[in-house]
Amino acid sequence: MHATQSGQYHHLGTWNCPLPRPGGAPFGSFAPFRLVPGAYDAMPPQLQLLADLAPADPVGTAALVAEVAAPWVQDPDTFGLGGEMPPEDQAVESHPEWGPNLRAQIREGLRRADGIAWDAAVLYGDWGFAVDTVRQPTDVWHGTVDAVTPFLNGEWLARTLPDATLHQVLGGHFIFYSHWRDIISALVARIPGSSA
Q1: Cβ pair 9, 2 in contact under 8 A
Q2: Residue 97, Cβ neighbours under 10 Å: how many?
Q3: Is residue 70 part of a domain?
Q4: Is position 7 within any domain?
Q5: Could you give the angle at which helices 45-53 and 58-74 cross, rounded to 10 degrees?
Q6: What pTM did the predictor assign?
Q7: What burial class does residue 150 get, using C-beta atoms within 10 Å of its C-beta: 0-12 exposed, 13-18 middle, 19+ buried?
Q8: CA–CA distance, 101 with 93 (Å, rounded to integer)
Q9: What number of helices (H) and strands (E) belong to the chain?
Q10: What is the average pLDDT across 41-52?
Q11: N-terminal to C-terminal alpha carbon distance within the chain
């Protein structure tokens, strides 16, 4: 955690990437938090803050993100996800190949705080459509111990999308590292004519 000039403590995390089926909908494990019973309360306080601020004021949120992220951008060795993450995510962070890549991705994402703020504005704001109107087949991959995006979000999304398959894996927020082979194999297996 880092203190902002106002003395408040915040820690900002990263977001999952959507993995559509070929020809399918571009959804990951995010769902409109306000529609998922209990999801907002299950979010870490720093992400609740982001969810509260970003939709109404992405520019102001970008300033907050920039202030919080400045030490990490200036000295990448100070970046750490910390003990707030489950052991599965801590294992990804400390992995000799995945850890440096993960930290580089996060640092790059934090370098332009306005990108994170606008992503959060879209993610946590009104999507402008009802999720249950999306008819494309969709795979929803979600770690059961995700400390950033509550697992109940993935469950809700898979229940609400008319043609979704929920892949629940023992893992945290960074399952795209620890389970990438499973994710890619399942995706390739859905391509017509694939031999996977």
Answers
A1: yes
A2: 8
A3: yes
A4: no
A5: 140
A6: 0.74
A7: buried
A8: 9
A9: 9, 4
A10: 84
A11: 43
Query: What is the span of the domain harbouring residue 36?
Result: 18-189
Distances (CA, A) of 151 to 11, 38, 89, 139, 189: 20, 11, 14, 15, 25
User: How far is CA 48 from its chain centroid?
Assistant: 13
The β-bridge partners of 139 are 165
d(CA 22, CA 138): 9
Domains identified in the chain, total number: 1
In this structure, is residue 195 part of a structural domain? no
**81 vs 105: CA distance, rounded Å:** 13
Q: What is the pLDDT of residues 103-150, one digit of tens each?
A: 888 778 777 888 888 888 888 888 888 889 999 888 999 999 998 888
Would you say residue 194 lies in a domain? no
Encoded tokens for 82: 């910390």
Element of type H or E holding 169: strand 164-169
Strand partners for 166: 140
